[in-house]
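Session log. Operator J.P. requested a structure for one protein chain; no other inputs attached. Running the standard single-chain path with token output.
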Amino acid sequence: QVQLQESGGGLVQPGGSRRLSCAASGSDFGIFAMSWYRQAPGNQRELVATVTRGGSTHYADSVKGRFTISATNPLNSIYLQMNSLKPEDTAVYYCNADFGGYFPESWGQGTQVTVSS
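Structure written below.
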């Protein structure tokens, strides 16, 4: 069983920046990809960004050009650099680990990011 721990959330002003971190621990199971999701009140959880073991990245259209996902090698920690933050980026941000179908996905507990003046 892999545990994921997020950190870095908090209150930030519009236009500001924030860096989230997520570290995996507890197992040597191979992680195929890790992602950041977010969920705002009243909304469904949505994918923000993904990085694969091979280094490929994918971003939601709403964050392209503003957010950057990075990862350690081997893949067991990820980061999300968030720039030019907007109030609509306010959400709980969750870390996810995908084992390529060999094991159930793992989720972190989430970290709150609030963008407000």
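Operator note: The chain has a mean pLDDT of 95.
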